[in-house]
Design a protein that fits this description.
Oligomer: homodimer
Number of domains of chain A: 3
Largest sheet of chain A: 10 strands, mixed
Strand content of chain A: 25-35%
Helix content of chain A: 25-40%
CATH class of the largest domain in chain A: Alpha Beta
Number of strands of chain A: 18
Distance between the termini of chain A: 49 Å
CATH superfamily of the largest domain in chain A: Dihydrodipicolinate Reductase, domain 2
Shape of chain A: elongated
CATH topology of the largest domain in chain A: Dihydrodipicolinate Reductase, domain 2
CATH architecture of the largest domain in chain A: 2-Layer Sandwich
């Protein structure tokens, strides 16, 4: 019998209780013993809730109880979650969490602290919700040399982009419907500006590089500039538009960024639609491996937290090791990344565009006129920006993958 | 330092040596220690090969060497692989294998033997080649109640079906090209009749049910009856035709089968093309999770074998447990499975078809005439077969998913 505590009885925290209640036999089979939820920490009381009797308001009750082996931090945010996690690890308790913000900000430090205390720090649910990608990266493909990781890491933006594509609708109207349906927050900035995807990209980049990639070092663009005309062009090119978190190792340099990409039809990410997430990992032996599933949602995310609990219980007395040192990673400036771009300029700028981009391939789309659209040759981000500034009259651009 | 042996220096066996040679540092990081290939067992010599000095012809050299902890059986076939694996496990050595034929035939018995000897029996590479699906099923989602597993498990047939679809070509001509290019065997029966997919489905079904599902108990159809007209209808229905291995738990009954299915566009399996494989698992908390990657190939398959070696070395002295008992599973007869069918009959049989299938929905396809095609309502396989027999003039049918 292993006893655990949940910090924060919100969506994910109550989901953890629900998964343990519903799949208790399967959880016990997987862990090799029963797992009991002994405490729930929350500021609130939950009268009438099935678990109201185990709700406590003081973290020390949990930290001082030697029976509690694993703490699931599902509060979110930096504080007090960070302080609670540190105290738990220092008290010799393993921690697992869905808190992407905290893992992105302090993950490597918390892994280090866990190692020092011979306990574990796991965070499967922080990337891709229920998708079992992080454990697989650590257990099944860690012996690969990874060339790239590219992921659709935010369900809200993927839902919006999919709707814009299928219904030929513009961004604002789709966002409004998504908000009404509860798929997007009232304040959607964290999703649509790419900040959420950036946190998850930082976590993936850190695991891929083995060092701490700070989210502040990741160039990030959201999807607010994507128009319905862009989708017409994407269809014409046989491509899909996806917000990707991208980590890449090229010529010994490490790149990371978040931005909308026009993804080729032969890339499996191009067909990931709606609220689903997917992460494509390219290894030097394996080639492409993609993990696909629900990137959010109460039960799916909670199931990933429970998987971490099980892993910890199975490895009691042992630190589950990550290839992740708490030293800053060298992230190359995005300026030096090289790729193709899809560009739209005013029709009047066609000659200037062809002068700046001699290898440009024109693209046309049904129902779009008064402009000149093209795909550039492979060019550095820096050179591209310089040419674009000289050009003027630019209606927009999207990177190609 | 852990020492291992490879049995069989063919495609996968030499791939294991290649992965260890190429990614030695990453393998050591992942395992926590160096892994050395001490012996290769093969009937042949390999003069000039990098590893010729460690080739042995006598299995006892390996079995009697207490330094050898892990044996990778990459010979394929039932014998002598089965005998060698049993002897290895009895000698206290863990075994990992890519041998799907043997795992399908004797996997539960070998897991049992491994447990008895406190060593491990792993077989990641036996399903989906390099796709890290089995360990994930055992480590990350074993606490889910799985409703279904559906997989594209054979790259050759998926390549053929993809070519037939994209190039509007018929089966025979695509098979011929596939054989010329080496994507299909000269004797392609094991692939195109579904036998290979059946072995892998048996392994997945056993893990899902926790009991031994024999491949003989799995109803299996290949792809030889699929025509270019079928693809016209599938396009008209917005569906893809895929050879699926399917395991399903419904109303307490367990079903398993291999057959071509018309897969809806909203199912992620519908977009898995070419030689790629994918396995979609549906859990009661997680919903759909899909694993995608190379289902075959020297390096990818060998990488999965090496992942097993690493897992074993990390868990030295401990049996890695599967939820898989060596007792026969109760597999429900396919007759009782219920689903929709797409059916084509001669035009003259239209009235008879509508009489037999009153809820039939007609389907038309460009360039196909002289026949009546329709989709049935949900019906049992048994009732469907009976009606079909009464009908006569049937040109073909494909199940819907």
């Amino acid at each position: 019998m292993a006893k655990i505590a949940v910090l924060g009885y919100g969506t994910v925290g109550s989901g953890v209780a629900y998964v343990l209640d519903t799949n208790g036999a399967q959880v016990a089979d997987s862990a090799g013993e029963d797992i009991e939820l002994k405490y729930i920490l929350d500021l609130r009381d939950f009268p009438g809730d099935k678990h109201e009797s185990i709700v406590v308001h003081d973290i020390d009750v949990i930290l001082n109880d030697p029976e509690v082996e694993v703490i699931c931090e599902t509060m979110g945010g930096i504080e007090p979650a960070f302080t609670f996690e540190k105290k738990a690890l220092e008290a010799g308790k393993s921690v697992c969490t869905s808190n992407k913000e905290l893992v992105a900000a302090h993950g490597p430090e918390l892994v280090e602290l866990a190692k020092k205390n011979n306990v574990s720090y796991l965070f499967e649910a922080s990337v891709g919700g229920g998708i079992p990608v992080l454990r697989s990266m650590n257990d099944s493909i860690r012996h690969e040399r990874l060339d790239s990781i590219r992921g659709i890491l935010n369900g809200t933006t993927n839902y919006i982009l999919t709707k814009m594509d299928k219904e030929k609708a513009d961004f604002d109207s789709v966002l409004k419907v998504a908000q009404e349906k509860g798929y997007a927050e009232r304040n959607p900035e964290a999703d649509i500006e790419g900040h959420d995807a950036c946190r998850k990209t930082a976590i993936l980049a850190s695991i891929m590089s083995g060092q701490f990639v700070k989210h502040e070092d990741i160039y990030t663009e959201g999807i607010t500039k994507i128009s319905s005309e862009d989708f017409e062009y994407a269809r014409s090119l046989g491509r899909a538009i996806k917000l990707l978190g991208s980590c890449e190792r090229k010529n010994g340099k490490f790149f990371a960024m978040v931005a909308p990409f026009m993804v080729g039809a032969d890339n499996p990410l191009s067909t990931v639609n709606g609220v689903f997430n997917a992460i494509d990992v390219h290894g030097n032996m394996l080639g492409d491996v993609m993990y696909y599933g629900k990137g959010a949602g109460k039960e799916a995310t909670a199931s990933a937290v429970v998987a971490d609990v099980i892993d910890i219980v199975k490895h009691r007395g042992k630190h589950i090791d990550w290839n992740l040192r708490n030293v800053p990673a060298q992230v190359e400036s995005n300026e030096n990344a090289e790729r193709q771009f899809f560009v739209r300029v005013d029709a009047s700028a066609k000659d200037a565009a062809l002068a700046q981009f001699p290898g440009a391939q024109e693209v046309t789309a049904s129902g779009v006129s008064g402009e000149f659209a093209f795909v550039t040759e492979v060019i550095s981000e820096k050179a591209f920006e310089e040419k674009l500034t000289l050009l003027g009259n630019v209606k927009g651009y999207i990177r190609l993958l």
